[in-house]
Design goal:
- The chain has about 325 residues and is an alpha/beta fold.
- The protein has a single domain, classed as TIM Barrel (Alpha-Beta Barrel), CATH 3.20.20.
- It has 11 helices and 8 strands.
- Strands 6-5-4-3-2-1-7-8 form an 8-stranded mixed sheet.
- A hairpin with a 5-residue loop joins strand 7 and strand 8.
- The longest helix has 16 residues.
- It starts with a helix and ends in a 24-residue tail after the last helix.
- About 50% of the residues are buried.
């Protein structure tokens, strides 16, 4: 795999600083039952990295001593971590909002037959990857049979109340482009998803979150291999909107890796850029003081243009709606 960090560290991205910490995003491990082409984590069934019990407890201790409102669990497939369920239960008992970033097909893995019931029983928000509403496109990006398995999982979640108004069970879907292009306007694409998934399959969901592909790890390496890295970075730079700087996720979120080390975002985690200016000093969650983060500089590099391009991109989807700007690509 091609390393993209050397292509990103020399940057003129604007300096930004932290606000109040609201969300702790925790990567429970890089093991996944899928191996997607766009994955910025380079997750796969062969990965062995997994957060252990001691580190899970340290994360929960940090949460208990801070004012964090949301615990955002990701991977890989976070549900494959043996401590996933106890972590969720502890966080919900502490009245935290818990998000599970779910690839949907995990619900059909051996040993996960009751996962959907567990998530519903604990009121966990499910943020589910579904990069298209067309079977051919999903299977091309995520593997043969993934689309149908995803639909079965969505139908099961719907049957439990997910995606239904007033149920309190939130089901959001995630879209990312198939290649080196900015995504279309989130509002427009959400209407397409709602129409197609509803009329064809009876699937309901709350929101569609539109994400920009980041030039790191597996996707970044594929850009290098195809000779598209420089052109894609030009697309991101040309679409940069300064207004998005106020809403980028790193202002209110930190990312924790499977070992417990802290980063300004999960993209910096994948690049090995530690928390704070320069990204040089590793900080462990057991030594993190959330109150001391306010006003601190954030480690930036050229990949940060992926979060400010066009309508903007974050773990919560688009930062703002900008019609038409998402049509830009390396071919255009």
């Amino acid at each position: 795999m091609h390393a993209t960090l050397p292509l990103l560290v020399d940057t003129d991205f604007p300096a930004i600083r932290r606000g109040r910490l609201e969300t702790l995003q925790v990567n429970l491990g890089y093991r996944c039952n899928q191996q997607c082409l766009h994955c910025h984590v380079a997750a796969s069934p062969r990965r062995k990295e997994m957060m252990d019990r001691r580190t899970v407890d340290q994360v929960l201790e940090f949460v208990a001593s801070s004012d964090i409102a949301t615990l955002d669990l990701t991977g890989g497939a976070p549900e494959l971590n043996p401590h996933f369920r106890s972590m969720v239960a502890a966080a919900r008992a502490a009245n935290l909002h818990v998000i599970d970033r779910c690839n949907l097909t995990i619900l059909e893995e051996p040993g996960q037959e009751d996962l959907a019931d567990f998530l519903a029983g604990h009121g966990v928000e499910v943020v589910a990857s579904l990069p298209c509403y067309l079977e051919e496109n999903v299977d091309r990006q995520r593997g043969e049979g993934v689309f149908k398995a995803s639909l079965r999982a969505l139908a099961r979640l719907n049957a439990l109340g997910y995606g239904h108004a007033g149920s309190g069970l939130v089901l959001n879907l995630v879209y990312n482009p198939q290649g080196a292009t900015l995504p279309p306007a989130q509002c427009q694409l959400e209407a397409d998803y709602r129409r197609e998934l509803g009329s064809r399959y009876g699937i309901r969901f709350n929101q569609l979150l539109v994400l920009t592909n980041m030039p790191v790890q597996r996707f970044g390496s594929s850009l290098v291999s195809q000779g598209q890295f420089t052109a894609y970075m030009a697309v991101l730079r040309q679409a940069h909107r300064a207004d998005n700087l106020a809403a980028v996720m790193c202002r209110s979120l930190v990312s924790v890796d499977w070992r417990g080390y802290v980063y300004d975002c999960d993209f910096n985690q994948m690049l090995g850029l530690s928390l704070g200016a320069g990204g040089r000093t590793a900080v462990h969650i057991s030594h993190l003081d959330s109150s001391a983060l306010v006003g601190q500089p954030i480690c930036v590099a050229d990949h940060c243009y992926g979060c400010t391009a066009g309508q903007g991109s974050s773990c919560g989807g688009a930062l703002e709606e900008v019609g038409g700007i998402g049509e830009q690509s390396v071919a255009g």
